[in-house]
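Extended Data, panel c. Modelled sequence:
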Amino acid sequence: MTRTAEERQKYIVLSMLFIAWLIGNLDRMVINVAVIPIVDEFSLDPTSQGLILSSFFAGYALMQIPGGWLADKFGAAKILTISLFLWSIFTALTGSAWSLVSLILIRFLFGLGEAPFSPSSAVLISEHFPKEQRGRAQSTLLSASVIGKAITPVLASGVIVWLGWRSLFFAIGVTGMVVAVLCLIYLKSPVRDAAASKSQQTKVPLKTLLKMPLLWSLLLTSFGIYFVTWGMASWMPTYLVKVRHLDLVSMGALSTIPSVTSFLAMLAGGVLLDRWMAGREKGFVAVCALLTGLFIYLMFNAPSVGMVVLYETLSGITGTFIVIAVGLQPLKRFSQEVIGTAMGIVNFGGQAAGFVAPLLIGMTVKAFGGSYTAALWILVSLMVVCAIAAMTWPSERKTAAQPAATPAG
């Protein structure tokens, strides 16, 4: 393959991954809007609503590490395409759910199917992009998740009002299958030589990695910020409709504002951390966590819808900075041989939070008779935990000195 062909292929790969990542975020996010008419149709209480929102993350978290292993074992392009087919099928099946149990089961299987996508896409980036370009490529994929979050409320609310919630899932599922066919055609893993293949099979003892205090600090920090991220994403649409009395379309339109600003914050956050906060990330994350908690408190106590959106926007900006900083740490702090495993473990903490947050908030809202006050204090408390966990990150010098940072021979 010529140099020009290599360049062309890597951007084809990036483009396909971006589209697939966008579809994946639409698939998982539309339930946060669709659950409003679903609850009415099935006459569900807040705990049952929480179960629906959490069931995806149960499967998604369980398959994070196995999904990465499958990508390494059978090829990232193949596993990613299979994953896209599977989650698109279960997205379409969501529109056929006939009961609470069927809906929970479908969402759980949806999570299992989508889980290998994230580690597979990371492997494909590492296969096609040199190290000095991987950060920008990964940021491009991450921006797709923010774009998906921004357009989901408008898209989902519009289609639901027009065609109903079942048609929404059918349409997105079919779209995903079309993208999966395109991935089957255009996504290819490069052919490795024997030395590279042998290098990829080098095993690093998991127990060695688990001895590093930094790993546990990052896992706890990840759990804290993603608890708030997914808790807010899952329940804000319902809160705005049920408590702030917005109609579905107005809620969808207003919900795009925090998402757009979070996208801009993501673009600015990478530059901020690279240029001005290098080596001072833990203090930066701690301050952002406390500010996020403060903005959430002010949001739930805001006197108007406009102020709710303002404080939600501010919490989204500071929360985005935390997400970026946590995601950068494994790349900066761990040796090359253990980055994949470390990322999988840290990501597991975040996805576990995605399972716990919607369910716990739903149970809390039910226990307090529809009030969100107790849920507010849970979110604020998790931000305090996030700040404390970040302050326990050891310095980069101490991390580099740890024998666990290098693989066993």
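The chain has two domains: 1-189, 204-402. This feature is highlighted in the accompanying rendering.
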